[in-house]
């Protein structure tokens, strides 16, 4: 089985699906001839030509707005927004149209649309290139939000997202793009949306994370040694696989949520609320949130202080264990 | 290479010289530029049909306004004055073409296969009015201004990629030309030569703000030039001119000639919506002046001059149209009670746990109160 | 003291501040000649002219983008976005610029900007006219988020928002615009940002709400008082910065919390309140926190709107649930 990085797995998923389904197209800034600034769409232009691997003008609202029209008229666009920080210009089309179309047309129209976005910090990038905006989209009814943490998941989830009849925001932890390789099957396979992955079974504490933070959690677990941690990788943030979360916390009685986004009114807040609502009696300690701060993502010289690291995760785990 | 660049003389180019001439075929008195009228390819039946649509729309509009004033309809956006824009453009379309309406295009929507009942259903506060019949290529109306221009470019673009010959027409107003999306849409359409017809109903006002304060451009049509596409201006109260311009734009699009921006110069005779009061921002004389240019009057004069229409025909049409709309209103007022599940359905293809749970919660709450909300 | 509705109080606040401070301007679609679609800016153009009461072209991104530039260069713009549902086109300018300028220029520049928007449902309005988007802005560092629930607060909070040196998203519950009148002092007074208001004292349950949910919250508290249940009602008024002290003090006293909001539940501001109490008052909780909210759907049009909006009955149920535990 070939060994792939996460970015290669994404490229492979796109190629696989474009070969299988002639209505799948990729579009965005620099996705054609250049193969994408991260090479996610490398060589698709050669194989599928400029009508299916489209270099668009530099206009995010235009990209998503047009992709909506294309999806209404029989295509399955995979639109790339070049960086997380450039999603806001497309916000109106995402929340006012993409998210609502099936609902407001009573099922007459739906949008098999994927918006792919390099996501999160950790690569010492420029301003507006390291955002973690998942909460905006998780709060918006009608969107699915997916974020892989490994090459294998990236390919299987992206293929599922492309085949999903509803709009999917597909966040790619750019810090993991080339961080490691993993065996990735050739050809098609799917990982269903809405299913969390139990990365490691455990009994003392549940750690819930997604994207690049899953790796950070694994590092923290190594440092913790004898503590039995159950690590959940959510993979899909909307709709949430809440059963898996509740089952795990019911078993362990303790939960730590790790995310890089700012804390206030985030997905970590929602998870904390959901755990409190449903399994309060099983909780042996308050849920801990280990998150980015309620500030903007600092520039590269301070980035490492903003992003949760293994030490902070470890501290969070110790806090709930020591309650 | 560098050397040749250095020696290259500085060049100034005249990009274009621009004369925007307003296309007009039908005069105010109902006389017509006969050559052009004949070239339209419209039969007498076609012309009569256009007139019927326009009159029916006006009657619908007046009825809808009255319903709203009586508290029987929600906020409503009247179309009076813009019938020629909508009838002329919609009549030029083929069934496989797409329309992307804004929120005032009731007539275009109905001519293309939706029902007057759908329009009342929507403005009466039910999403069911957005359930476009299968096989009808009408997109749902768009309230966020100008956003639909991009959807139309995408749909036309998809047709082009799929090798189909359908076009997409998008309706918007003069206010929409101020939004960024309008400019992004023209730009995408120009770059990819999508078969999109941008149909601007310049009705002179975006709520209270007049066209002159919306843009410093002399015309809206001229905005096409900067995007490398064709812009034309037509008398929007002249159904022939609108039909001609739209038909030509569609044919051009179908034949690979790319997009066109049509500015139809018209006037909103009524309020922006029933929540608006036009007397606050425009003089009555101005409205009166535009009433003289009423598109329906003008077509009626033409039909009469051509010997195609008389007082009996008119009386018969009014009776038929009123009865059709009255039936529609009766149907509207007897729409079935909606199920609260409608709130939760169609958010996704499949209902996730949180929605199932929330629906259950709501149903239990209603059950505790005899099946409906408690009266507070 | 004059009796005013909320929309009159907002109009009065704008006039008061424009008289006091010549750098304050209002701008937006139809805010000038027409006085705003809800009449919030009525007569300001007569008193202050078209340079300070500006009818802009129809472009929300343009309005907020240029307002940022004005704020950088000495003005204090109060920009109106005509309806909550039209805030998304301005989203980029709000979160990528307004929210960040002080931080990214190390305090060299800042943006004394207020973005006013009529907010939330209940008036049978068309699509995209009844949104409750506060969570988007509450999640964005660098913004303040203010939502009044009565005329007195509306004026005092708006005056405070205009004088605040940082960008404030000021959401006006349109359903309450003309719902009732209240005595509103003439002239200048402030309701400070970041201070919640204890609208009703109680000891058994804490009920937190804001904006148009406040009347339902108070009615529910009143209704359930007859069952000898004492509800403390907190009107947050400012979501960001959050008055966590008032919230935590109350929950520590009552041990029970119900949160009421109109926005969709998932990742709504209620989730943050629940998480805050989990973090800081966990041991005081006698029952799981209850969130009574809009469902995770788009807000429906008129015919189903009432089924979407939390009402007194659902609020009472929430209180009963948290007590029955």
Description of the structure:
The complex is a heterotrimer of chains A (323), B (376) and C (325). Chain A is α/β, with parallel strands linked by helices and 323 residues long. Chain A has helices spanning 6-20, 44-48, 60-72, 91-98, 101-104, 134-138, 151-163, 213-224, 242-252, 267-279, 303-306, 310-321, and strands at residues 3-4, 24-28, 53-55, 76-80, 114-119, 144-146, 168-173, 182-183, 197-200, 205-209, 229-233, 236-238, 255-262, 288-292. Chain B folds into 2 domains: 40-333, Thiamin diphosphate (ThDP)-binding fold, Pyr/PP domains (Rossmann fold, 3-Layer(aba) Sandwich); 339-376. In chain B, helix 11 links the parallel strand 7 and strand 8 (260-265). The mean pLDDT of chain B is 94. With 325 residues, chain C is α/β, with parallel strands linked by helices. Chain C has a 7-stranded mixed β-sheet with strand order 3-2-4-5-7-6-12, sandwiched between helices. In chain C, strand 2 (24-28), helix 2 (44-48) and strand 3 form a beta-alpha-beta unit. Chain C is globular, with a radius of gyration of 19 Å. The chains are: A alpha/beta (323), B alpha/beta (376), C alpha/beta (325).
Distinctive features:
heterotrimer; B: 376 residues; 2 domains; 6-stranded parallel β-sheet; 8 strands; 47% helix; 9% strand; C: 325 residues; alpha/beta; Rossmann fold; 7-stranded mixed β-sheet; 5-stranded mixed β-sheet; 12 helices; globular
Query: Which strand order spans the largest sheet of chain A, edge to edge or round the barrel?
Result: 3-2-4-5-7-6-12
Largest sheet of chain C: 7 strands, mixed
Q: What is the number of domains of chain A?
A: 2
Overall geometry of chain A: globular
CATH fold type of the largest domain in chain C: Rossmann fold
Q: Which second-level CATH architecture of the largest domain in chain C applies?
A: 3-Layer(aba) Sandwich
Query: How many extended strands of chain A?
Result: 14
Q: Which chains make the largest contact?
A: B-C, 48 and 46 residues
CATH class of the largest domain in chain A: Alpha Beta
Strand content of chain C: 15-25%
Q: Using DSSP, what is the number of strands of chain C?
A: 14
Radius of gyration of chain A: 19 Å
Per CATH, the superfamily of the largest domain in chain C is Thiamin diphosphate (ThDP)-binding fold, Pyr/PP domains
Low-confidence runs of at least 5 consecutive residues of chain A: none
**End-to-end span of chain A in angstroms?**
46 Å
Number of helices of chain C: 12
Q: What is the approximate shape of chain C? A: globular
N-to-C series of helices and strands of chain C: EHEHEHEHHEHEHEEEEHEEHEHEHH
- The separation of the N and C termini of chain C measures 46 Å
What's the alpha carbon Rg of chain C, rounded to whole Å?
A: 19 Å
């Amino acid at each position: 089985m070939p060994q792939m990085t996460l970015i290669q797995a994404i490229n492979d998923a796109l190629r696989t699906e474009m070969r299988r389904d002639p209505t799948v197209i990729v579009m965005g800034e620099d996705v054609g001839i250049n193969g994408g600034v991260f090479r996610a769409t490398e060589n698709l232009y050669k194989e599928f030509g400029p009508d299916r691997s489209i270099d668009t003008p530099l206009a995010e609202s235009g990209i998503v707005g047009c992709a909506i029209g294309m999806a209404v008229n029989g295509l399955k666009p995979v639109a790339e927004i070049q960086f997380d920080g450039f999603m806001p210009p497309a916000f109106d089309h995402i929340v006012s149209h993409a998210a609502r179309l099936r609902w407001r047309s009573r099922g007459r129209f739906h949008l098999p649309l994927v918006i792919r976005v390099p996501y999160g910090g950790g690569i010492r990038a420029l301003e507006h290139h390291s955002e973690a905006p998942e909460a905006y989209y998780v709060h918006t009814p009608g969107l699915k939000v997916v974020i892989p943490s490994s090459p294998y998941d990236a390919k299987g989830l992206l293929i599922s997202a492309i085949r999903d009849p509803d709009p999917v925001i597909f966040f790619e932890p750019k810090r993991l793009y080339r961080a490691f390789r993993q065996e990735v099957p050739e050809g098609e396979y799917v990982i269903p949306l809405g299913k969390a992955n139990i990365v490691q079974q455990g009994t003392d504490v549940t750690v819930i994370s997604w994207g690049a933070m899953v790796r950070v959690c694994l590092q923290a677990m190594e440092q913790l040694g004898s503590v039995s941690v159950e690590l959940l990788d959510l993979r899909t943030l909307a709709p949430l696989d809440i059963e898996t979360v509740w089952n795990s916390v019911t078993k362990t009685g303790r939960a730590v949520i790790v995310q890089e986004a700012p804390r206030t009114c985030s997905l970590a807040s929602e998870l904390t609320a959901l755990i409190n609502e449903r399994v309060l009696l099983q909780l042996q300690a308050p849920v801990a949130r280990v998150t980015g701060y309620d500030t903007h993502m600092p520039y590269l010289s301070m980035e490492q202080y903003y992003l949760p690291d293994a030490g902070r995760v470890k501290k969070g785990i110790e806090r709930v264990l020591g309650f | 290479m560098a050397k040749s660049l250095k020696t290259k003389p500085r060049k100034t180019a005249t990009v274009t010289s621009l004369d925007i001439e307003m296309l007009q075929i039908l005069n105010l008195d109902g006389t017509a530029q006969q050559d052009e009228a004949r070239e339209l390819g419209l039969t007498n039946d076609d012309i009569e049909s256009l007139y019927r649509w326009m009159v029916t729309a006006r009657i619908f509009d007046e009825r809808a306004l009255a319903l709203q004033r009586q508290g029987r309809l929600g906020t409503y956006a009247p179309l009076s004055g813009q019938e020629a824009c909508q009838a002329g453009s919609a009549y030029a379309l083929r069934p496989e073409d797409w329309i992307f309406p804004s929120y005032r295009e009731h007539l275009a929507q109905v001519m293309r296969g939706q029902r007057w009942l759908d329009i009342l259903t929507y403005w009466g506060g039910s999403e069911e009015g957005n359930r476009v019949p299968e096989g009808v290529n009408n997109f749902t109306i768009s309230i966020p201004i100008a956003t639909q221009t991009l959807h139309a470019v995408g749909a036309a673009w998809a047709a082009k990629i799929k090798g189909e010959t359908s076009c997409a027409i998008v309706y918007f107003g003069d206010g929409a030309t101020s939004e960024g999306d309008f400019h992004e849409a023209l730009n995408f359409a120009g770059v990819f030569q999508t078969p999109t017809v941008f149909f601007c109903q310049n009705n002179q006002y975006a709520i209270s703000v007049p066209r002159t304060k919306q843009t410093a451009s002399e015309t809206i049509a001229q905005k096409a030039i900067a995007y490398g596409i064709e812009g034309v201006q037509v008398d929007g109260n002249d159904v022939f001119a609108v039909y001609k311009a739209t038909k030509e734009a569609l044919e051009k699009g179908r034949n690979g000639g790319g997009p066109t921006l049509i500015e139809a110069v018209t006037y909103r005779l009524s309020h922006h919506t029933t929540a608006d009061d036009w007397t606050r921002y425009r003089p009555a004389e101005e409205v009166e002046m535009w009433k003289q240019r009423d598109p329906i009057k003008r077509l009626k004069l033409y039909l009469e001059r051509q010997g195609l229409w008389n007082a009996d025909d008119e009386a018969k049409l009014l009776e038929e149209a009123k009865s059709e709309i009255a039936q529609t209103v009766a149907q509207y007022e007897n729409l079935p009670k909606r199920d609260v599940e409608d709130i939760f359905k169609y958010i996704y293809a499949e209902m996730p746990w949180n929605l199932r749970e929330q629906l259950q919660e709501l149903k239990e709450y209603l059950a505790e109160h005899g099946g409906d909300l408690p009266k507070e | 003291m004059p009796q005013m509705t909320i929309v009159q109080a907002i109009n009065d606040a704008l006039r008061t501040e424009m008289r006091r401070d010549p750098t304050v301007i209002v701008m937006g679609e139809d805010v000038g000649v027409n006085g705003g679609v809800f009449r919030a800016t009525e007569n300001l153009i007569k008193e202050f002219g078209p340079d300070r009461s500006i009818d802009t072209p129809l472009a929300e991104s343009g309005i907020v983008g240029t307002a940022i530039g004005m704020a950088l260069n000495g003005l204090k713009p109060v920009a109106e976005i005509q309806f909550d549902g039209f805030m998304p086109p301005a989203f980029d300018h709000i979160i990528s610029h307004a929210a960040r300028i002080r931080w990214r220029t190390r305090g060299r520049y800042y943006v004394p900007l207020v973005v006013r928007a009529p907010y939330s449902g209940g008036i049978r309005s068309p699509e995209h006219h009844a949104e409750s988007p506060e969570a988007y802005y509450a999640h964005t560092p660098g913004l303040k988020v203010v939502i009044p629930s009565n005329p007195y607060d509306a004026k005092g909070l708006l005056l405070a928002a205009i004088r605040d040196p940082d960008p404030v998203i000021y959401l006006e519950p349109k359903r309450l615009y003309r719902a009732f009148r209240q005595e509103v002092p003439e002239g200048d007074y402030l309701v400070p940002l970041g201070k919640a208001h204890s609208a009703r004292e109680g000891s058994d349950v804490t009920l937190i709400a804001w904006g148009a949910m406040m009347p339902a919250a108070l009615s529910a508290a009143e209704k359930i008082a007859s069952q000898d249940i004492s509800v403390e009602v907190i009107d947050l008024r400012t979501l960001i910065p959050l008055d966590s002290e008032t919230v935590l003090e109350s929950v520590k006293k009552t041990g029970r919390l119900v949160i009421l909001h109109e926005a969709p539940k998932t990742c709504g501001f209620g989730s943050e309140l629940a998480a805050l109490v989990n973090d800081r008052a966990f041991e005081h909780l006698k029952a799981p926190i209850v969130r009574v909210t809009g469902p995770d759907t788009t807000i429906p049009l008129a015919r189903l709107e009432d089924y979407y909006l939390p009402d007194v009955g659902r609020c009472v149920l929430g209180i009963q649930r948290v007590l029955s535990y």
